[in-house]
Design brief:
CATH architecture of the largest domain: 2-Layer Sandwich
Helix content: 40-55%
Shape: extended
Strand content: 15-25%
Largest sheet: 6 strands, antiparallel
Order of helices and strands: HHEEEHEHHEHEH
CATH class of the largest domain: Alpha Beta
Distance between the termini: 62 Å
Number of helices: 7
Length: 203
Amino acid sequence: MKKKEKKKKLTAEQITAQEFTNVLNIQNNYLYTRDGYVIGYIKILPVSVGLLSQREKETLVKQLTAELSVEKEPFHFLAISRPVDMQPLLESYAHLRNETSDPYRRELLRKEMENLSDFTFGDEIVERQFFFYLSMKAAEDVERDLKKRISEFAEHFEAVGIKTEIIKDQDIVRLCNLVNNPAVVSIEDEMTDASIPILKGVI
């Protein structure tokens, strides 16, 4: 009896990452799950709502609500927090500083690099990324049908001036890593009290 229990335990410990995360394969810009679904992802590109007036914000909410209200099939929303990589910007500033002979410009760049370094090694800079994903049961021509549905779904956002991007294989891998890998998860100090979200100006 003990040998049988030990064997079961060892089997559970040897489950692969793909089995644990329900990922069978990622190819042709789709994620294939082990339970027989094909998933495509749409990334919502950043929108500077701070530049909009209150009336413009309310108009945008109403327009987007009207666009999405025609959707009859289920869709999923995903919000991910990830640390911002400041290293490329620091390297760019360092290059500019080495290229210029103007002492004032060199000093300004040096101070800016110091400020960025303080951010990098102090409080973590976090950016929010937003995705929608749509799925279909695996079947013949599923990629063609899902591609059409994803394109039509993205058009809802494009129609109101919100840019989108249908993410590819490598980006899907990165997204899975952000969701499932604790090493890259960013911990945010936020209130988690239960609440009901309401879109202002819609009701």
